[in-house]
DNA sequence: CCCTTATGTAATCATCGATTACATTTGATG
DNA sequence: CATCAAATGTAATCGATGATTACATAAGGG
């Protein structure tokens, strides 16, 4: 090991490989490590995240009271990315076409879920941390739901829908998209997933089928 | 402890509380314990199942090579119950009405999933054991899927469907029903679950909406 | 400068899945 | 019966994990 002067406490200025005692932004690094582990298909453990951050196994507990809190923080980060992508997609959809916006929303939703399955699972499953334990996640999700309700209300106002039961349509739409994402996650799409774009095309087809089903006339 | 005659090897005939060395049907008891644990919301551990069977922590591994194998066996048992209930429902639906059978199938599927959420998860999620590791489960599931495909083909043959893309309809239907079940599982139905039947009524409504969407005319 | 607070380490614990060596039963075969 | 091999259960142990505790080190404000 490199020579260490015991009388000089300023460790931050030591040899290059001498890591300073304090990490800098361990909390953030742990969240990133957790998301990274998940996306690699590995199971997320606090210790492995600590290992990746080159820090002792107990260190993470200075930033998170328990494993669930780390997962909740990771979920919040993932949700920010998810939501950001959806908002970009909606920003390109004309406000005058509510069903078009509905479609764009569903496409962006599924696109992200197909490409970030592990992160989607962390966000949605409530297995890694207690369901209502993250107000940010709850509020964020409620806002997304409110968005879709607004689109359906607009569509109904323009007389575009066959049924007036918006609640039912909204639940069905959520179930359809959520179910498609989870089928992908849970391995229910066998080997026509060899073509990367195949699943995403099917997602598009399913969304279009649904919209055609709720839209007035043909 | 009760007197024990060391010269008499016939342990099965001892005092009432003296458990025989061999359990009798440990394999089955372990599977039931696993399903019981899951339905109680507890996480299933091999040790806890062994505890409930009043057996040593190593005993289960005489019947299952590892935890996943136990979960797979539990999944197979759950799938039998699931499938049995669906077949009963289909037995009461007239063969001449394919869309009615489709509806009955979806209702039975969701009814069981709503009432046995933990077991539904074990069957469907592929998190407790490798996905293709149970041929029985795979085959069983494929048969259920084939059932729905047949219904849709019959409906198309009778000219009941608006679209000829049966594959797309079938995937959408699966996603819808699977998504609804998983939303319930993952806690996406907040507190209008207080009324027990409320969710099941919503499930019915969603299925009807879907069928109305794919059926020809109105 | 000192002292409080934040943050990291080391050591330790209980639980879990899994393996190994050993003990007990069962049941087939002679 | 008697014997022995196979099946099944136990005890002890291992490595990994989440979590806690006591202690060490750094940072920053009086």
Summarize the structure in words:
The structure is a homodimer of 218-residue chains. With 218 residues, chain A is an all-alpha fold. Chain A has helices spanning 26-39, 46-52, 67-91, 98-115, 117-125, 135-157, 166-185, 196-214. The longest helix of chain A is centred in the middle third of the chain and has 25 residues, at 67-91. Chain A binds a DNA duplex (30 and 30 nucleotides) through helix 2.
Task: Kindly summarize this structure in a few lines.
2 copies of one chain form a homodimer. Chain A has 218 residues and is an all-alpha fold. Chain A contains 8 helices and no strands.
Shape of chain A: elongated
N-to-C SSE series of chain A?
HHHHHHHH
Query: Largest interface here, residues on each chain?
Result: A-B, 34 and 34 residues
- Rounded mean pLDDT of chain A is 90
Oligomer designation: homodimer
Helical residue percent of chain A? Answer: 55-70%
SS element count, helices of chain A: 8
Spatial gap, N to C terminus of chain A:
76 Å
Q: Runs of chain A with pLDDT <50, length 5+? A: 1-17
Number of E-state strands of chain A: 0
Sheet/helix structural class of chain A: mainly alpha
Output the keywords.
homodimer; 218 residues; mainly alpha; elongated; DNA-binding
Layout of helices and strands, plus pairs?
2 copies of one chain form a homodimer.
Chain A: H1 26-39, H2 46-52, H3 67-91, H4 98-115, H5 117-125, H6 135-157, H7 166-185, H8 196-214
Helix pairs in contact in A: 1-2, 1-3, 3-4, 3-5, 3-6, 4-5, 4-6, 4-7, 4-8, 5-7, 6-7, 7-8
Chain A binds a DNA duplex (30 and 30 nucleotides) through residues 9-12, 20-23, 26, 45-48, 55-59, 61-63, 66-67.
């Amino acid at each position: 090991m490199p020579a260490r002067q015991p009388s000089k406490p300023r460790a931050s200025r030591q040899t290059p490989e001498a890591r300073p005692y304090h990490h800098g932004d361990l909390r953030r690094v742990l969240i990133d490590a957790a998301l990274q582990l998940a996306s690699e298909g590995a199971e997320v453990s606090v210790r492995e995240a600590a290992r990746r951050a080159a820090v002792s196994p107990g260190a993470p507990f200075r930033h998170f009271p328990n494993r669930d809190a780390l997962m909740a923080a990771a979920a919040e980060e993932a949700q920010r990315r998810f939501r950001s992508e959806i908002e970009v997609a909606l920003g390109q959809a004309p406000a005058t076409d509510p069903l078009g916006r509905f479609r764009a929303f569903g496409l962006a939703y599924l696109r992200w879920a197909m490409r970030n399955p592990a992160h989607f699972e962390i966000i949605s499953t409530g297995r890694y941390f207690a369901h209502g334990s993250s107000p940010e996640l709850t509020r964020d999700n409620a806002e997304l739901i409110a968005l879709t309700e607004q689109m359906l209300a607009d569509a109904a106002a323009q007389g575009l829908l066959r049924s007036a039961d918006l609640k039912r349509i909204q639940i069905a739409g959520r179930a359809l998209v959520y179910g498609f994402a989870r089928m992908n996650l849970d391995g229910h799409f066998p080997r026509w997933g060899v073509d990367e774009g195949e699943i995403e095309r099917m997602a598009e087809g399913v969304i279009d089928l649904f919209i055609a089903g709720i839209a007035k006339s043909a």
